[in-house]
């Protein structure tokens, strides 16, 4: 039966030019190429240059997805760790893309963010709130990871990926067929940056590295990730009415190759239907799934319309999976795009800031 569906029609990607190999990290950390490969599956990752922000990557990936689809967007959802605590990053991204006046939203679900944003986009299309949502996953985790911490510095890289969707029907390649999302706040301490919010502001005293930087309790995260993602995939397969054996493309959030292998093995996914690029780009958090999709499409490894499962697990704790048919879109890759330099506004002689009140309300 044909029904209205949100359909992926454009794929975009953006990666920094700077490549950081395992050998590069071994020069400053107590580690080795062999140690990193055996525990993560990562060989190299991309890292932004100083002055390049998450928003710069998001703009490039978003513009690439729009170019891939040959269309514009009427809603922007940005899954990310934002450029700054306030305001959200999505309005600036939309402005720089020339999408003036469109509604926007930052989605904060860490590594599960892209799946959550896809779910929101699908609901927005179904409700009639929009017809061409742009979903971007963008991260610069190297800016929030302690580069002297071997447990996290070797894992993360920077990048952005994006998809443009349109209102279509369920028979089209790229149609989203089913979703499953979940969370468990009891595990919020397993993946976190402790400082920077209202519970632990960055002001008012010295902060330790553990408070200022991203930290993760790897062994516990591994167990949770494997169990939660395997359960979520079984649920979304049942909702789509698909069998494990019918899946022809299986892409997980590129967190750790051992996690990806463990979930795939539990579900009985054949090796030749497992796709990813963690070896080349590392863990790019919310950007990892669209980046892996763009890479897989560029290498022409999956036919349009093939039954596909996407899955992710991240801080919160959050997790989710998506059942869709592989899109019929050619990916476009663009380098990070920087905004025009801001002009400094001089303060008036009395020391107040222009546009603000010098006395309490």
From TrEMBL:
GO terms for biological process: fatty acid biosynthetic process; secondary metabolite biosynthetic process. Its EC number is 2.3.1.180. Residues 237-326 form the Beta-ketoacyl-[acyl-carrier-protein] synthase III C-terminal domain. It is an enzyme of class 2 (transferase). SUPFAM superfamilies: Thiolase-like. Keywords: Acyltransferase, Cytoplasm, Fatty acid biosynthesis, Fatty acid metabolism, Lipid biosynthesis, Lipid metabolism, Transferase. Pathway: Lipid metabolism. Residues 334-361 are annotated as: Disordered. The keyword Lipid biosynthesis applies. Pfam families: ACP_syn_III (PF08545), ACP_syn_III_C (PF08541). One of its GO terms (molecular function) is 3-oxoacyl-[acyl-carrier-protein] synthase activity. Residues 105-185 form the Beta-ketoacyl-[acyl-carrier-protein] synthase III N-terminal domain. InterPro entries: ACP_syn_III_C, ACP_syn_III_N, FabH, Thiolase-like. Belongs to the thiolase-like superfamily. FabH family. This is Beta-ketoacyl-ACP synthase 3.
């Amino acid at each position: 039966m044909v029904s209205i569906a949100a359909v992926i029609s454009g794929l975009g990607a953006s990666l920094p030019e700077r490549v950081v190999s395992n050998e590069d990290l071994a020069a400053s950390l107590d580690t080795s190429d062999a140690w990193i490969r055996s525990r993560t599956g990562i060989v190299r990752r991309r890292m932004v240059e100083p002055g390049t922000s998450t928003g710069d990557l998001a703009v490039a990936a978003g513009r690439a997805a729009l170019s891939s689809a040959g269309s514009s967007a009427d809603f922007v959802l940005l899954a990310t760790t934002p450029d700054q605590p306030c305001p959200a990053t999505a309005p600036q991204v939309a402005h720089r893309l020339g999408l003036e006046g469109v509604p926007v939203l930052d989605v904060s679900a860490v590594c599960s963010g892209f799946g959550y944003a896809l779910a929101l986009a699908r609901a927005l299309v179904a409700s009639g709130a929009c017809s061409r949502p742009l979903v971007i996953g963008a991260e610069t985790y190297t800016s929030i990871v302690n580069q002297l911490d071997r447990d996290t510095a070797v894992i993360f890289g920077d990048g952005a990926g994006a998809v443009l969707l349109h209102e279509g029907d369920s028979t089209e390649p790229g149609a989203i067929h089913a979703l499953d999302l979940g969370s468990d706040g009891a595990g919020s301490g397993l993946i976190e940056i402790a400082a920077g919010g209202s519970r632990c502001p960055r002001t008012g005293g010295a902060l330790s590295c553990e408070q200022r930087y991203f930290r993760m309790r790897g062994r516990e995260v591994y167990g949770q990730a494997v169990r939660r993602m395997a359960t979520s995939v079984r649920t979304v397969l049942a909702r789509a009415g698909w069998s494990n054996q019918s899946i022809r493309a299986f892409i997980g959030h590129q967190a750790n190759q051992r996690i990806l292998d463990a979930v795939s093995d539990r579900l009985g996914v054949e090796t030749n239907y497992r796709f990813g690029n963690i070896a080349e780009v590392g863990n790019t958090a919310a950007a990892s799934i669209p980046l892996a999709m763009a890479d897989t499409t560029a290498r022409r490894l999956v036919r349009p319309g093939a039954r596909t499962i996407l899955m992710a697990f991240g801080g919160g704790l959050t997790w989710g999976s998506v059942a869709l048919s592989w899109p019929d879109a050619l990916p476009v890759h663009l380098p990070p795009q920087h905004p025009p330099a801001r002009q400094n506004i001089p303060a008036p002689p009395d020391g107040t800031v222009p546009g603000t009140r010098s006395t309490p309300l």
